[in-house]
Amino acid sequence: MSILGLPTNRMIVMGILNVTPDSFADGGRFNTTELAVNRAFAMIDEGVDIIDIGGESTRPGAERISAQEEQSRVLPVIEALSKANVIMSIDTKQADTARKAIERGAHIVNDVSAGLADSQMLSSVAALGCPFIAMHSRGNSQEMGSLAVYQDVVKEVVVELTQRVEEAISAGIHSSNLILDPGLGFAKEAHHNWALLNDLEAIKAIGYPVLIGASRKRFLGSAVNAQTPDEREEATVALTALIANKGIWGVRVHSVKPHRDAISIAGFMS
How would you write the chain as a 3-class SS string? Predict the structure, then answer.
């Protein structure tokens, strides 16, 4: 079944649009409405499927901001793009921001806490009737590093994501609206991320579309000796190509055209 009419014959590309001053890869590059909207239209021109708009950095150690501050960053961008015929997701842990973003024209709620950060999130998404991306993590940005302790990371992520699915369905979110993200880099060390990527079948076996968000993350740099986020772009594209034929629903990335091209080439190798 297609989610919001998105393609089902290839992996979809979700383009990251951080309207923040402090996101790890592109903080400050698009932190005004004008810059963010211009970036969004550039991604549309390159063939993006979803634009994921976030107003609060979720990098390790990031400080929380108020819902009002978050909304002042993202809502004008969503309103400006609402007539652009592009699917938008709101990257937020705050239920009030999720509600207002959907009301302004966003289509999907993408919560890196899978509803754990705000007790009203799951019931709010159920009432909105929109797709919900539930990502695996542990703790908040300040404490997640200390919680990256696993006996078997794949089994534990599967168990914890399954629990979030059960909570979401109990709150009234329809199963057809659920998308899962194993949360690479969130309460996980590099070897945990690689273990998850090497056993994507276990994540898929939970029974829902899977989104992978590895773009420019530190664990990729450790594999190719790339120090800065921008230097990790080629490694990110390589990963997209490698998983494009593995039945993964989508990738969340900072650039669009290189990943669309990688997916297209992979389509000839299936």
Answer: CCCCCCCCCCCEEEEEEECCCCCCCCCCCCCCHHHHHHHHHHHHHCCCCEEEEECCCCCCCCCCCCHHHHHHHHHHHHHHHCCCCCEEEEECCCHHHHHHHHHHCCCEEEECCCCCCCCCHHHHHHHHCCCEEEECCCCCCCCHHHHCCCCCHHHHHHHHHHHHHHHHHHCCCCHHHEEEECCCCCCCCHHHHHHHHCCHHHHHCCCCCEEECCCCCHHHHHHHCCCCCHHHHHHHHHHHHHHCCCCCCEEEECCCHHHHHHHHHHHCCC
Q: What is the mean pLDDT of residues 28-47?
A: 87
Find out whether 261 and 240 touch, Cβ atoms under 8 Å. Answer: no
Whether the CA torsion 8, 173, 185, 188 is positive or negative: it is negative
From the list 39, 216, 252, 260, the catalytic residue is 252
Apex 76 CA angle, 71 and 80, nearest 5:
150
Q: What is the pLDDT of residues 65-104, one digit of tens each?
A: 899 999 999 999 999 999 898 999 999 999 999 999 999 9
Percent of the chain past pLDDT 90, that is, above it, reads: 84
217 tagged catalytic: yes
- Under the banding of pLDDT at 50, 70 and 90, the label for residue 23 is low
- pLDDT, tens only, 194-239: 999 999 999 999 999 999 999 999 999 989 999 999 999 999 999 9
Among candidate residues 217, 218, 232, 260, the one labeled active-site is 217
Structure tokens of 53? 């708009």
